[in-house]
Amino acid sequence: xxxxxxxxxxxxxRATDLDAIAAMQETSIMALGAPIYGEAKAxxxxxxxxxxxxxxxxxxxxxxxxxxxxxLGVGGWSPxxxxxxxxxxxxxxxxxxxxxxxxxxxLVERAERSACAADRPxxxxxxxxxxxxxxxxxxxxxxxxxxxxxxxxxxLDYVLMAKRANRAPRAPxxx
Length: 175
Known about the structure:
The chain has a domain at 9-121: 3-Layer(aba) Sandwich (Aminopeptidase). Helices cover 31% and strands 34% of the residues. It contains 4 helices and 7 strands, in the order βααβββαβαββ. α1 packs antiparallel against α2 (39-52). The longest helix is centred in the N-terminal third of the chain and has 20 residues, at 18-37. The termini are far apart.
């Protein structure tokens, strides 16, 4: 079956996806994150996917990208608890075999549209070092670096990045 016959599809995350998502996240981190962070740090980071996978069913919106009934990516947004106009891009991972095919970009665009529809046009993301170039390419600007403790004595360097979502122009009021 060609890609044209079975195009990439984005759909909301379902509870039945959670274990497959965590496994795909682990594969992605070990292939794409380990070269930057090293094997021990990447393995500690990858284990968090199983711990936090239920967050994908919470507030905001999360989607999977699939093709040929195969999970190729996941991502979405969560509302900030203090700032009413802020959404956090979260849990964006693409299977390493599907990297650089526009899947991450499509997932972020879907999250942006959804966050804007919820009146949250300001976007932020804690980017892993291996993803900073990706986020820059889609309009995010770095604000500061920080360290995230993922396990006892294991910290990951991250970059806080931000952008304003692209809003669709609103129609003028009829009068």
